[in-house]
Predict the structure.
Amino acid sequence: MSVLHTRRFSSWARGHLVCRVEDVTDLFALTFDDGPNPLASERILDVLARHEARATFFMLGSNVRVHAPLARRIVEMGHEPAVHGDSHWPMPLLLPGGIRRQVFRGAEAIEDATGVSPRFYRPPFGFMTPGQARFVRNLGYEPILGDVYPEDPHRPGVDAIVRRVLPRLRAGSILILHDGSPLGPANRDQTIEALEIILADAALGGLRGTTVGELLKRSVEATA
């Protein structure tokens, strides 16, 4: 079980990070980290198109600069770009100046490649303190984590990924998956195969995958 699913960590993280969204009945946020990745991102786009789903891609600036056309393709397909840092440095190892550089350099790479200014940030390894979250918000980015994480980059098997997702996935959830790696192009076959199953099963339950931005918007509209 991911530490994200433990009661103590989940309660702590929800105090300063967006982990899920309430007051939404038919949507969950679908997110991918560490791309873009030429071995997987295009195939994930194909799966999303088949299921009429949208997603938020938390991109690494270092990968965006190498694969700028792919980052642009993600946005052209109607998906949302977001910042995952520039080079996947863990937040606890960074002073404020280092955090600022990681966030701004990652955002700059995305803006240069796609023409879109990202609004959301996810910390590498999913960890940041409340003070760091406030610091990133003051930089203009909303910190996002999630409430469903099957640890797919460890390649536990398609069945394990699906089994770790479906019992936890519900309206308002933010699902964390990976299309890339900070080490460069990576095999994400298991994630892609599991994604097909997850989206099909979610649809049977009346749920559709969408972007973080759309999920938050729907929540605001529901409470207005």
